[in-house]
Design a protein that fits this description.
The chain is an alpha/beta fold and about 700 residues long. The chain is built from 29 helices and 20 strands. It has three domains: about 260 residues, 2-enoyl-CoA Hydratase, Chain A, domain 1 (Alpha-Beta Complex); about 180 residues, 3-Layer(aba) Sandwich (Rossmann fold); about 220 residues, N-(1-d-carboxylethyl)-l-norvaline Dehydrogenase, domain 2 (Orthogonal Bundle). It is about 50% helix and about 10% strand. It binds (S)-3-Hydroxyhexanoyl-CoA. (S)-3-Hydroxyhexanoyl-CoA (3H9) binds next to strand 6, helix 3 and helix 11.
Length: about 700
């Protein structure tokens, strides 16, 4: 019989087979929960001797339906369904393929037996949504795999392979061949062998098996690494409950801690990011029938750190790359950098020697542009000089076949000016990678005024192949990310000259959740980089002297950041630890005097608001100008490109959390105080605040 469109139940010989079919990932919506529950109830009184739970499509159930979170609960709850499954009088077996994640894996853990095909993965990734497994996952995984392994699985949230799951006792067997056939045979064998009903809730955890202080250490570690993130601390509490309490009480405790996480701003922010990341890949108003151009070979101009990193992305995805350098020496240097980077990846155990050799065999180097005659995509990654870039694009126009996509990795130059050096501006696009390009997830795809739709679609599509998160930006100085960064850096420098110390600014931002404060980042990247870039800018683009004079003065003193042992801080040559330096205070005082600024204390709250609200205001202007497609795209850029804390969801989501009225009010106050264009409140921000709307409502 058919219980719902999403779930089908049929008798196959002596096995009652429940099939879930809720594309694309069989998320456990209310219809799925209801369908499974009805089928399990029906199976109790029909002729089946065991029940098998299988999924159609590309995966086993990939979790609770995240879209239902934050809305009124719909019966049956997942806990209710799992209680029905666990208490079934007939054996229930889960058959796993694809990814059994979150609530999906919790459901499998509740079944009496679990089988999987070898390519399957299982995991409890709730922590990535600021949550914890809320349907018995913490209590059951710790009973099956032991508290230490369960804590590891749940606190990092990464899926594990079927073979690892087998060694951890989280599944019972790995099956070969067609899963439907093999799992029915497995169920029949269990019946024939009179296999007992195995309920995980019956397992006792041996307290003595857990090292003394294990959970206290975990708490301290998580507090240090994920400061202020409730989910991690609550996961440890669930583990304590698994050890100390009877199963049912442990379940109740887990539920209470799950609800606490669900109601937190951090989880709302991380769930927002989950959907933001996926919608960023979608281009509005792009004809869906458009065929992307195929990309089988890639050329890269410039084999420096950036070009080399970009080449690795493609080689990792099995796409051959030709690297162009100016001379043989440059070619050799570029290939050596790539080889060294792969070596580091191997030494970290993330790649085998064999995989490294294969990737390296896909990257070749040359000085001859003619060798790019037949590639599908070229990415120019030379240093930021417009004339040089135009010269390169002119040359590419001569050698590349019609239809080759010509991309620039510029981080702020005008795409249209670069495209004007070719006779085919429709093929030109920006593909802005972030450094290190083989590690950072973000890819800003920048459309010029003439870029063809199929070129945009190809760039967004290839991003997924090379495992990047693409965000589309319009063409403006700095695009989405670096334009916002300018406001942030300019406010940082203003705070510095007006009275804040580097350690105050960095401390405030690190407490907010940034991995590093802006001045520590400057020291890490090298202060000379910004200095050199500023030299090439017009006075108008450089902005007010107070927004860069301290940085310039430090560079002119030879303080280039970590690489010279000093910048905004002094660095211990051995540990690289940063130390405050009174000399920097003198520099700040001198520069302030020069500009007639009297330094006075600035509160931590003002530092935070000035830095973060400057991002929000610029983000709103980008939205209003149509440079960004959606506010959530801006969040994706800032989280994946600039280290904005995930648990804040990005600057625009943070603004929604604070409330746009309050944000507007504070921005207006800053404008009254500083009267800089930075603080002119974006019209869009004002209008949303007046209508009592937020950014997420603006699509
Ligand atoms: C949970 O289970 C809580 C429980 O412990 C307790 C409850 C009481 N719900 O990523 P893709 C959509 S928390 C709703 O592009 P892939 C996704 O938005 C949950 N929708 O595919 C996208 O939609 P669209 C724990 C979901 O092949 C489409 O599916 N589980 C869900 O690259 C395709 O997704 C997780 O956190 C969902 N659970 O990767 C798993 N999952 O096409 C989250 C996906 O409209 N999911 N969608 O943009 C994933 O990690 C990946 O989606 C997965 C597939 C690996 C499954």
């Amino acid at each position: 019989m058919e219980n719902s469109l999403a779930v089908d139940y049929q008798l196959q010989e002596n096995i009652g087979v429940i099939r879930v079919n809720n594309p694309p990932v069989n998320a456990m919506s209310q219809a799925v929960r209801m369908g499974i529950k009805q089928a399990v109830v029906e199976a109790q009184s029909d002729n089946c001797q065991a029940i098998l739970l299988l999924c159609e499509g590309r995966t086993f159930i990939a979790g609770a339906d995240i879209k239902e979170f934050g809305k009124p609960a719909l019966d049956p709850s997942l806990s209710d369904l799992l209680a029905t499954i666990e208490q079934s009088r007939k054996l229930i077996i889960a058959a796993i393929h694809g990814t059994a994640l979150g609530g999906g894996f919790e459901l499998a853990l509740t079944c009496h037996y679990r089988c999987a095909i070898s390519s399957a993965k299982v995991g409890l990734p709730e922590v990535k949504l600021g949550l914890l497994p809320g349907a018995g996952g913490t209590q059951r995984a710790s009973r099956l795999a032991g508290v230490e392994a369960a804590l590891d699985l749940i606190s990092n949230g990464n899926p594990i392979s079927a073979s690892k799951a087998l060694t951890l006792n989280l599944i019972d067997t790995i099956l070969e061949g067609d899963l439907a056939e093999a799992s029915i045979a497995y169920a029949q064998k269990l019946v024939a062998d009179f296999a007992p009903i195995k309920r995980v809730s019956d397992i006792n955890i041996e307290k003595d098996s857990i090292p003394t202080g294990f959970l206290d250490d975990a708490r301290a570690r998580f507090e240090k690494r994920f400061r202020g993130q409730l989910a991690l601390q609550n996961i440890v509490s669930c583990m304590e409950a698994a050890i100390e309490l009877p199963f049912d009480e442990g379940l109740r405790k887990e539920r209470q801690l799950f609800v606490e996480c669900m109601q937190s701003d951090a989880s709302a922010a991380m769930r927002h990011l989950f959907f933001a990341e996926r919608s960023a890949a979608k281009v509005k108003a792009l004809d869906r029938s458009i065929c992307a151009r195929e990309i089988h070979t890639v050329g890269i101009i410039g084999g420096g750190t950036m070009g080399g990193g970009i080449a690795m992305n493609f080689a990792n995805a099995g796409i051959p790359v030709i690297l162009i350098e100016v001379d043989d020496c440059g070619v050799n240097r570029a290939l050596k950098i790539v080889e060294r980077n792969y070596g580091i990846t191997v030494s970290k155990g993330k790649l085998s020697e064999e995989q490294k050799d294969h990737c390296l065999s896909l990257i070749s180097g040359t000085t001859k542009y003619e060798e790019l005659g037949d590639v599908d995509l070229v990415i120019e990654a030379v240093y930021e000089n417009l004339d040089l870039k135009k010269k390169i694009f002119g040359r590419l126009d001569e050698v590349c076949r019609p239809g080759t996509i010509l991309a620039t990795n510029t981080s702020y130059q005008d795409i249209d000016l670069i495209a004007s050096a070719t006779g085919r501006p429709e093929d030109v696009i920006g593909m802005h990678f972030f450094s290190p390009a083989n590690v950072m997830k973000l890819l800003e795809v920048v459309r010029g005024s003439k870029t063809a739709d199929d070129v945009i679609s190809s760039a967004m599509g290839v991003a997924k192949i090379i495992k990047k998160i693409p965000v589309l930006s319009g063409n403006c100085y700095g695009f989405i990310g670096n334009r916002m960064l300018r406001s942030y850096v300019s406010e940082t420098q203003s705070c510095l000259i007006e009275g804040a110390a580097p350690e105050q600014i960095d401390g405030v931002m690190e407490n907010f959740g940034m991995a590093m404060g802006p001045l520590a980042v400057g020291d890490l990247a090298g202060l000379d980089i910004g200095y050199t870039a500023r030299k090439a800018l017009s006075q108008e683009k450089k902005g007010a002297p107070k927004t860069y004079c301290i940085a310039d003065a430090l560079v002119e003193m030879g303080r280039l950041g970590q690489k010279s042992g000093s910048g905004y801080y002094l660095y211990d040559p051995e540990t690289r630890g940063r130390m405050n330096d009174p000399e920097v205070l003198t520099v700040m005082q001198q520069q302030a005097e020069k500009l007639g600024i009297i330094r006075k204390p600035i509160s931590d709250e003002d530092v935070l608001n000035r830095l973060v609200f400057s991002l929000i205001n610029e983000g709103a202007k980008l939205l209003e100008e149509g440079i960004a497609q959606r506010s959530s795209d801006i969040d994706v850029v800032y989280v994946f490109g600039y280290g904005f804390p995930k648990f804040r969801g990005g600057p625009m989501q943070y603004a929604d959390t604070v409330g746009l009225k309050k944000v507007c009010h504070i921005i207006d106050e800053f404008y009254n105080q500083y009267e800089t264009p930075n603080w002119e409140c974006a019209r869009l921000l004002k209008s949303l605040a007046t209508k009592e709307l937020n950014f997420s409502a603006y699509t």
